[in-house]
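Record 1 of the preview.
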Amino acid sequence: MTVIEKRIGEKLQDQFSPLHLEVVNESHKHAVPANSETHFKVTLVSEHFNDLRQVQRHQAIYRTLAAELAGPVHALALHTYAPEEWRSVTVPESPSCLGGGRR
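->
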């Protein structure tokens, strides 16, 4: 687990008391230097999301991770679910990066 990955997980755990939390460093899939901590995928299931629309859920996470988003984190893929939604969902795979325009 990387430093930023751990920090993201800890902050989300503290703020949302998730039933399920997965933080994945996907930087290696992108055109960044080796060992980067810039691209992350978060899957978060929390009762805090029961009455929130997706945009409100994402805004809450952005507020929680403001320092990381202002610094090292370039991209954050969010998959947020209320517990009832989580029972019948398949989390999508992240697409492959095209190398920032390079082919």
